[in-house]
Design brief:
Layout lengths: L1 H15 L5 H14 L5 H9 E8 L8 E7 L16 E3 L2 H9 L7 E8 L2 H27 L11
Antiparallel strand pairs: 1-2, 1-4, 3-4
């Protein structure tokens, strides 16, 4: 059900913005779903299963980074992300990062905002969405390659 909803969004985005990478479309779709009040089960599940986090990069650590939860939608108890290694993470779209900065969600340091699963099922959901978006990107690339001819590579040399 969730993959089907994302699939429709991805196809519409591909028609309107064919140059936009599918991973960016996925990021925009998740951001749209998280910032709006859920109107269906898909939005409700995404709100429960996806967190927005920030990977902090502090100058004094010079190369090391620390992760902390900045927002859980709906607001809930904190999750210590420092001891969870190997989780799937996906960066937020730039417009979402700007919105969060504008609302003073983050006050100091540098870092990157990303989506993270709130539970094991949330991590599976994000990974499945990511793999679907990448398969769509590979299909698009394959269609492009099949449309090429040998004469396309001849030029004035």
């Amino acid at each position: 059900m969730i993959l089907e909803a994302f699939s429709r969004y991805l196809l519409a985005s591909d028609r309107d913005h064919p140059e936009r990478p599918s991973k960016e479309v996925l990021s925009l779709w998740l951001w749209d779903r998280l910032r709006q009040t859920p109107t269906d089960n898909i939005g409700a599940v995404i709100r429960c299963e996806v967190l927005i986090c920030r990977l902090e990069c502090r100058a004094e650590d010079a190369g090391s980074s620390r992760t902390r939860e900045i927002m859980a939608l709906p607001p809930g108890g904190g999750i210590d992300l420092d001891d969870e290694a190997g989780d799937f993470k996906m960066r937020l779209p730039r417009q979402a990062e700007q919105t969060l900065e504008r609302h003073n969600v983050r006050t100091a340091g540098q870092g990157v905002y990303y989506f993270k699963g709130a539970s094991a099922s949330g991590r599976k959901l994000l990974k499945s969405l990511w793999e679907y978006s990448q398969s769509f990107e590979q299909q698009r690339w394959s269609r492009f390659l099949h449309g090429l001819k040998a004469s396309d590579f001849q030029g004035p040399y």
